[in-house]
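Record 1 of the preview.
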Amino acid sequence: MTPLVKVPAAGSLVWEGSCGSGSLAAAVAQSLDAPDGPFVRSYAQPAGVVEAAVVRRDGEAASAWIGGPVSLDPPTVVQL
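->
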């Protein structure tokens, strides 16, 4: 998956290297018809793989989390 973030107030679209919230949302959506218990998926993205997990209980998402290796780029200052 290649995340594309839209910010309507700024009128911008930005391609991201990875997206934790999008990966988690995808896992929750894909687990809707899954039986109770753990549902785990790995999402390959340009900056690496994000693993997302959902635990379903009584047909509902009871808990969820993401994981995988993380690295941070140095901060960038943008002057307008």
